């Protein structure tokens, strides 16, 4: 049985071991476990039951991650995406005064469309049509975005009214916890210590507990909150999607999730070395997995689910097969019972890991033809756009809009595929819809 599993996931062929895959899965889980607490807090602003959202988040993340591992065999975990959950709560429910039940139905309808265009292989064709240089830009841009998340969550970078962002306060003890984690993890990685990122997180946690900066959990085991307040609510309100405004909401859910997930998949596949001839093997199965996870999430009661960029932490540890994401999914199931223990994994613990992962992903930028401005300009906009707009899809949009323009200016318009020209117009409409007052 073990031999069959090893063969199916090609563990040896990809230079990995079962132990390393499980460690990578745990590292990915630890890096993204914050979503279990952040998502209920964000969606709770719309009136949703936070306990139910916690359980829905864990189950949707587990289902999507395990499905990705079994079907697509990639070390890429899924979970409710940040950004789109804020759009759900603050823009749709609070800003447009749309009940959360109707918004959840919008996610359900968007997921059905998602599955349809996946079956038609439209998503796969779009990913294959992206030029190699821009794929490297997406990967590097996600690296900067992930590092910016880590710097922000760790308190090293904070908001500043005068300069937008600036250095955080070094009088804050928890900021020094992040700095300790970053230094120790950097040393371990430079020394090429196996599992350096995970060891760094563990040592940071221990220091936090020892110094009192991280509170010891009051309990170990806790029953999972009831799913009843949100379970299958989306189905009961599909009929509410009957106005132009609500169809615009559905379209936004669809487009943001589409390009966030596509960009994340390409970036992670590039980081792990899966890309072959500018194509991602088994991309159809990966896309089918995340679109199905989005459907399941809407039925359970959460905002759109997609490939999670924090999977890069597990890949950096050495995860190369579906066993990594399956392990992550199983840890999410365990989290339902051991939720009090997750409180010790603070943002200061995960921040150093995200910063180091950002460095690793940024290495893909060396493959971009920076000496050709028609390539360099759109690639630069993608790379810089992701952290500055705090959105993977917005960063991709900036670059994809500029790419046909610069290629035409360089008299290389014939090298631009019809799909990239089509995406030029799609992203112009996408930006207009998202930013219209």
Structure notes:
There is one protein chain. The protein has 437 residues and is mainly alpha-helical. It has one domain. Helices cover 67% and strands 3% of the residues. The protein has 19 helices and four strands. The protein has a two-stranded antiparallel ribbon with strand order 1-4. Strands 2-3 form a two-stranded antiparallel sheet. β2 and β3 form a beta hairpin. The longest helix is centred in the middle third of the chain and has 29 residues. The chain is globular. Belongs to the nucleobase:cation symporter-2 (NCS2) (TC 2.A.40) family. Azg-like subfamily. It is a multi-pass membrane protein. Its main location: membrane. Keywords: Cell membrane, Membrane, Transmembrane, Transmembrane helix, Transport. It is found in: Cell membrane.
